[in-house]
């Protein structure tokens, strides 16, 4: 189980770094939005590329922030039944739900969105708006974002399996295995 826990730690580290980038992007999106609005109203100048940059940053925040949120156990879950279960029951519910629903769904969505990204990349798709941005990078964010959530799901499965075997204890707040 130790080699798998090392894989889980590496996945957690990756998603922590991605989450840090998303945190910075929140500030960057706010700054771009404020500056864009100020320039538009003060100088009557606007650019579609700045608006699309805001949308792209928001998409990155949502798609990559999902895996970070999942890692930190701050995602939405149906607490009514979950809280009535014992700690071991919660571990089993998390393990089964992640294996049966989350990982397959995210891998399927990642796979299905790949063709959309690839076609956009091959033709060099651009925004229809004047001064707009390339479309393929943001379409890749969709593919990569779902894959990152699936990857974090693998990490969570490893941690839950180790906890069920009594090898680690899960820190309830941050989902970190403790010795």
From TrEMBL:
<feature type="domain" description="Tripartite ATP-independent periplasmic transporters DctQ component">
    <location>
        <begin position="30"/>
        <end position="161"/>
    </location>
</feature>
<keyword id="KW-1003">Cell membrane</keyword>
<dbReference type="GO" id="GO:0022857">
    <property type="term" value="F:transmembrane transporter activity"/>
</dbReference>
<keyword id="KW-0472">Membrane</keyword>
<feature type="transmembrane region" description="Helical">
    <location>
        <begin position="91"/>
        <end position="116"/>
    </location>
</feature>
<comment type="subunit">
    <text>The complex comprises the extracytoplasmic solute receptor protein and the two transmembrane proteins.</text>
</comment>
<protein>
    <recommendedName>
        <fullName>TRAP transporter small permease protein</fullName>
    </recommendedName>
</protein>
<dbReference type="Pfam" id="PF04290">
    <property type="entry name" value="DctQ"/>
</dbReference>
<dbReference type="InterPro" id="IPR055348">
    <property type="entry name" value="DctQ"/>
</dbReference>
<feature type="transmembrane region" description="Helical">
    <location>
        <begin position="55"/>
        <end position="70"/>
    </location>
</feature>
<keyword id="KW-0812">Transmembrane</keyword>
<dbReference type="InterPro" id="IPR007387">
    <property type="entry name" value="TRAP_DctQ"/>
</dbReference>
<comment type="similarity">
    <text>Belongs to the TRAP transporter small permease family.</text>
</comment>
<dbReference type="GO" id="GO:0005886">
    <property type="term" value="C:plasma membrane"/>
</dbReference>
<comment type="function">
    <text>Part of the tripartite ATP-independent periplasmic (TRAP) transport system.</text>
</comment>
<keyword id="KW-1133">Transmembrane helix</keyword>
<feature type="transmembrane region" description="Helical">
    <location>
        <begin position="136"/>
        <end position="155"/>
    </location>
</feature>
<keyword id="KW-0813">Transport</keyword>
<keyword id="KW-0997">Cell inner membrane</keyword>
<feature type="transmembrane region" description="Helical">
    <location>
        <begin position="21"/>
        <end position="43"/>
    </location>
</feature>
């Amino acid at each position: 189980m130790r080699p798998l826990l090392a894989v889980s730690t590496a996945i957690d580290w990756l998603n922590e770094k991605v989450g840090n980038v998303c945190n910075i992007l929140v500030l960057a999106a706010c700054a771009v939005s404020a500056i864009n609005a100020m320039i538009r109203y003060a100088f009557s100048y606007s650019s579609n590329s700045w608006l699309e940059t805001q949308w792209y940053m928001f998409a990155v925040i949502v798609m990559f922030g999902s895996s970070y949120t999942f890692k930190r156990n701050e995602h939405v879950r149906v607490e009514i039944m979950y809280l009535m279960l014992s700690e071991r029951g919660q571990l089993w519910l998390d393990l089964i739900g992640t294996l049966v629903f989350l990982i397959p769904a995210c891998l399927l969505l990642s796979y299905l969105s790949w063709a959309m990204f690839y076609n956009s990349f091959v033709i060099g798709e651009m925004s229809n708006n004047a001064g707009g941005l390339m479309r393929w990078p943001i379409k890749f964010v969709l593919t990569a974002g779902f894959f990152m959530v699936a990857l974090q799901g693998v990490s969570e499965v490893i941690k839950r399996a180790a906890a069920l075997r009594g090898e680690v204890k899960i820190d309830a707040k941050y989902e970190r295995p403790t010795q």
